Every structure is written in structure tokens, then in C-alpha cells.
């Protein structure tokens, strides 16, 4: 399976990079993982609704430019479906079974994802109704993907 995580913004925090690298290394024996970073749109702290939409639009265009037509897209969105680790594992297993070998997880910037990205998504996934920094979300996501493969192989993993 070819997986990619497409995220807005550059990861700067060393501790997050180390965690992501560790889980990406562990994932190597199960799937090919590519991390894709697209630049975030520079914007002032105080934005009007129109300016917020323009920022999401520009970031969305960058995200969509990284997704080919044969990729199954899972957008991380606060209003998406919440799943347990076992349900995520089952979803990934079904995608592989039905020939969806290219899967992209998309993480938006601080303002979220554009409507165009959400429309392109085959599925919307929420990890919580809480808001997480998108850099931290990369680490949480890669760990959950690794956990999903362990679950699907019936291999032990801490609970």
C-alpha cells in the first residue's frame, strides 16, 4: 500500500520530527509512506471571513496539486466521522482489499481545509471534536496508521 500524508506547513519541532520518523520507520515493513508538506499561506492574526476563505483556498490549491486522480483521499476534518483504532484498521484493510492501493491523508492548516479539498475527499475523518495543532496531528496520525497495520496483522501492540 502506498500512503501519503499531505499537510499544510513545515514541521519545525524536533521532538515531533523524531516521533514521526520513528513511526514512519516502523511502518516501512507494512507500507510505503510519503510525507508531503505544502507551504502555509502567510496571513495576519486578525482575518475577516473572506480573508480566511482566501487563505484556505490558496492552501487547498497547493494540496490538490499533490493528489492524482487515482488516489483515495481521507481528509482530517473536525466534522468528519470518528473511528476507533480498530475501525480505522478495518477501513484501511478494506481499501487494500478493493484495490485502493494509493491513499492520501490530508491535514489542513490552522484554518482548516478548503471546500474544494473536502469535496475531493472520499472520506472525512475526525480524531476528536477538539482542535489539535496540525503539526502534532501528523504524529498522532502516523502512529494510528502504524497501529492499524499491527491490528490488521494480528500483531501485539500496547493499548
Task: Please explain how this structure is put together.
The protein is an alpha/beta fold and 159 residues long. 43% of the residues lie in helices and 22% in strands. The chain has 5 helices and 5 strands, in the order βαβαβαβαβα. The protein has a 5-stranded parallel β-sheet with strand order 2-1-4-3-5. The longest helix has 19 residues, at 134-152. The radius of gyration is 15 Å and the shape is globular. The two termini are 25 Å apart.
Secondary structure blueprint with pairings:
Layout: E1 2-8, H1 14-27, E2 32-38, H2 49-64, E3 72-82, H3 85-97, E4 102-107, H4 115-120, E5 123-126, H5 134-152
Parallel strand pairs: 1-2, 1-4, 3-4, 3-5
Helix pairs in contact: 1-5, 3-5
List keywords for this structure.
159 residues, alpha/beta, Alpha/beta knot, five-stranded parallel beta sheet, 5 helices, 43% helix, 22% strand, globular, rRNA (pseudouridine-N3-)-methyltransferase activity, rRNA processing, cytoplasm, RlmH-like, transferase
- End-to-end Cα distance, whole Å, is 25 Å
CATH class categorisation: Alpha Beta
How many β-strands, per DSSP? 5
**Total domains:** 1
Q: Can you tell me the CATH architecture?
A: 3-Layer(aba) Sandwich
Radius of gyration: 15 Å
Percent strand: 15-25%
CATH 4th-level superfamily:
SPOUT methyltransferase, trefoil knot domain
Report the structural category.
Answer: alpha/beta
- Work out the helicity level: 40-55%
Spans of at least 5 consecutive residues whose pLDDT stays below 50 are none
Named CATH topology: Alpha/beta knot
Task: Give average pLDDT, whole number.
Answer: 94
**What kind of sheet is the major sheet?**
5 strands, parallel
Q: What kind of oligomer do you see?
A: single chain
**What is the chain-wise order of helices and strands?**
EHEHEHEHEH
Family: Belongs to the RNA methyltransferase RlmH family.
Protein name: Ribosomal RNA large subunit methyltransferase H
Pfam families: SPOUT_MTase
Enzyme class: transferase
